[in-house]
Every structure is written in structure tokens, then in C-alpha cells.
């Protein structure tokens, strides 16, 4: 354990400081360890602020990933006190029990260094689930009018705000147990496209999500739904995929 | 679990749901009426209906439980999906053999 509390107090910050947080950060790779730092607690402070403070004022070698800081880009997700969260929109006051924070990299993904994970598997599974729009018209044809109030469009809109932060993937027990499982985000994306009437890739998509690592592996534990920072419901999307996939299989449109 | 196993597991679950209710009702009936073993056997021996009822039950249980065990082994043990499948087939055949033996014991004259 490495304690660098003395370095954690920048000049001029004392007047704004209410107390000091005890912050344990994962350091190193897969076989790293938690190290504890003292960080001044401030009003309206986010977990990302805490991590940034450590890097700017205590240890500049700390590695982590962020970009927009306002919940748009989806790059700053980490495990905070045991649960995956997007750190830029998570207030310390809501999660730091007794002034303690434990911040680690996302689970179910290889650790590159410190708080940064290798998210290639997460995005590759998007591709495996045929998460890319398959257009049915060219740019030379008229734009297809889309009614926003049809059941299919409502289902597509329900999940379209996914920002690929990886929180659901990190929270998922099935991903933890089955390395081939596509995961909530990729399957939710597939469900969005299946309900998009402009898309023409549904048979290939249903085939892609019906294998052993597909939607039928989901146990409906609903951790994805509980922890999604966008309040999306991947469990419902996966349940929809199960119905559509089973129907397509029984009709002979896809094979097992 | 792929879509074929999913459909089989859901279909066998749908078959088992009413069979379980009838089975429990039969247990209550036999217990409340105070039927002895010989009373039960007198009703079941030579009965094609009870043979079909419990024969279907055994078939559904063997398939359903084997698929479930395959998933558990695949997710919670070091076995590969293929080996978990072989173990599950073995378990399903064992359940079917034990079940058919039990059904035969009560329905064969």
C-alpha cells in the first residue's frame, strides 16, 4: 500500500475542502493491486474529478480513459465501490460511504494498465452481432418516411441512446461465465436494428445472435438494466430477440 | 445455448407445467384417500393413459434437465461446450432410463 496523502493537498484548495476522501485506485495490469490516496472532498465532485485529481496532483503516471466529461462519449466507465458506473456523471456524495472510494477498471475486460481496459472484445462483439446498419436504399433514392409512433419504431428508439460505455458488459454475470456471450450492448444494438424498418440485414442478424454465445445465453439477471447509466433496458431487448430468433428458427429462416 | 436448445428447453417446460400440476394433484388424491401401494398399482397397471402421461413426463424432464445441466457445466466448470454437451447427453439418458424403469414398474401388468 502506498499512501501519498501529504501530496494530495494543492495550495489554495484548503478553503474549499470539507474533508478528505480515502481513495483506493487499481494500479498495474491484471495482477496489480489497490493503492490508497488522500483526495480533498469538494461539493458536486464527481468520481472522474477524484481520479483526475490523483493524476494531476499525486501521481501523473496514473492511466485512465475519459473524453467529454458530460456523459456523452461513454469512455470513462470504471468500477466504483464494486459496481460499474460512468465516472463523469457519478457524484462522490452518492457512492462514497464513510468517505471511502474504491475505483478499479471495468470487469470482464482485460486490464491494460491502472483504470484503462482493453475494449476490443466489447466492440468486436458489436460487429459479430451485426450491429452495423444494412441500408436498403442508395443515396439517389428518396428518403423513406418513418412514423415515430409505430410499435417497431418505439422499440428501436427505446435502445438507440446507447453510448457504448461498457457498464452493462462489465455488470453482466453471463459475460463473466461465458466468454463467447455477445453481451447486453451488442444485443441491444441488434434489437434496435431489427426494429428499424430501413434496415435490410435482419436474417443475417438473427442468425448471428442465435448461436451459443447469442441472446439465448442470457439469464435475465437484469444487472445491465439496473446499472445502465442511460436507463436503457437491455434485458427487455434481449427478451425480444429471443422471441424473434425462436420464431425465425421455427419458420426455417435461420438454422441452429 | 443456441436457438435449437432454447426452443427444446422452452417446449419441454411448457409440456411439464400442466403435467406437474396433475402429478401433484394425484399425490394429494392418493394421500387424502389413504390409498395403499396395492391400491395405486391396481389403478395404474395396464393403463395406457398413465403410461403415456408419465412416459411423456419422463421424456420432457430428461431433455429439459439435460439442456439445463449443459448450460451449468459450460458456464461454471472448466469443461468446453462440446464436453459439457456429452456429459449432459449422458445425464439425460440416465434420467430417461431411470424414469422409464419407474414408469414400467407401475404400469406393466
Largest sheet entry of chain B = none
Number-wise, the strands of chain A total 7
Strand content of chain A: 5-15%
CATH class type of the largest domain in chain A: Mainly Alpha
Total domains of chain B, how many? 1
* Gross morphology of chain A: elongated
Name of the CATH architecture of the largest domain in chain A: Orthogonal Bundle
Give the oligomer, counting copies of the same chain as homo and different chains as hetero. heterodimer
* SS content category of chain B: mainly alpha
Output the helix-strand order of chain B. HHHH
Query: Count the helices of chain B. How many?
Result: 4
Q: Could you report the average pLDDT of chain B, rounded to the nearest whole number?
A: 95
Write down how many β-strands of chain B occur, each being a DSSP E stretch of 2 or more residues: 0
CATH architectural label of chain B: Up-down Bundle
Unreliably modeled segments of chain A: 1-17
CATH superfamily of the largest domain in chain A: Alpha-helical ferredoxin
Amino acid at each position: 500500500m502506498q499512501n501519498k496523502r501529504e501530496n494530495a493537498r494543492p495550495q489554495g484548495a484548503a478553503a474549499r475542502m470539507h474533508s478528505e476522501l480515502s481513495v483506493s485506485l487499481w494500479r498495474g495490469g491484471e495482477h496489480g493491486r489497490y493503492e490508497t490516496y488522500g483526495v480533498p472532498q469538494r461539493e458536486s465532485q464527481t468520481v472522474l474529478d477524484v481520479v483526475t485529481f490523483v493524476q494531476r496532483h499525486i501521481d501523473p503516471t496514473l492511466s485512465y480513459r475519459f473524453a467529454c466529461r458530460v456523459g456523452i462519449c461513454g469512455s470513462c466507465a470504471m468500477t466504483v465501490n464494486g459496481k460499474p458506473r460512468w465516472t463523469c456523471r457519478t457524484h462522490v456524495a452518492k457512492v462514497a460511504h464513510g468517505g471511502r472510494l474504491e475505483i478499479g477498471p471495468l470487469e470482464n475486460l482485460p486490464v491494460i494498465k491502472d483504470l484503462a481496459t482493453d475494449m476490443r472484445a466489447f466492440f468486436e462483439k458489436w460487429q459479430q452481432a451485426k450491429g452495423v446498419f444494412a441500408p436498403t436504399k442508395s443515396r439517389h433514392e428518396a428518403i423513406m418516411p418513418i412514423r415515430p409512433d409505430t410499435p417497431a419504431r418505439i422499440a428501436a428508439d427505446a435502445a438507440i441512446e446507447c453510448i457504448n460505455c461498457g457498464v452493462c458488459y462489465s455488470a453482466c454475470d453471463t459475460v463473466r461465465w461465458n466468454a463467447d456471450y455477445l453481451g447486453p450492448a451488442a444485443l441491444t444494438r441488434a434489437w434496435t436494428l431489427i426494429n428499424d424498418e430501413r434496415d435490410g440485414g435482419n436474417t443475417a442478424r438473427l442468425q448471428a445472435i442465435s448461436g451459443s454465445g447469442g441472446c439465448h445465453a442470457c439469464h435475465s439477471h437484469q444487472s445491465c438494466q439496473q446499472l445502465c447509466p442511460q436507463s436503457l433496458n437491455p434485458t427487455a431487448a434481449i427478451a425480444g430477440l429471443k422471441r424473434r430468433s425462436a420464431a425465425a428458427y421455427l419458420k426455417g429462416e435461420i438454422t441452429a | 445455448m443456441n436457438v435449437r436448445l432454447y426452443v427444446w428447453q422452452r417446449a419441454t417446460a411448457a409440456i411439464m407445467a400442466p403435467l406437474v400440476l396433475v402429478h401433484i394433484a394425484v399425490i394429494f388424491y392418493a394421500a387424502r384417500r389413504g390409498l395403499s401401494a396395492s391400491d395405486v398399482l391396481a389403478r395404474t397397471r395396464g393403463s395406457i393413459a398413465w403410461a403415456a402421461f408419465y412416459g411423456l413426463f419422463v421424456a420432457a424432464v430428461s431433455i429439459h434437465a439435460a439442456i439445463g445441466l449443459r448450460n451449468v457445466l459450460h458456464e461454471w466448470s472448466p469443461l468446453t461446450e462440446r464436453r459439457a454437451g456429452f456429459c449432459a447427453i449422458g445425464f439425460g439418458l440416465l434420467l430417461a432410463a431411470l424414469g422409464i424403469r419407474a414408469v414400467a414398474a407401475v404400469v406393466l401388468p
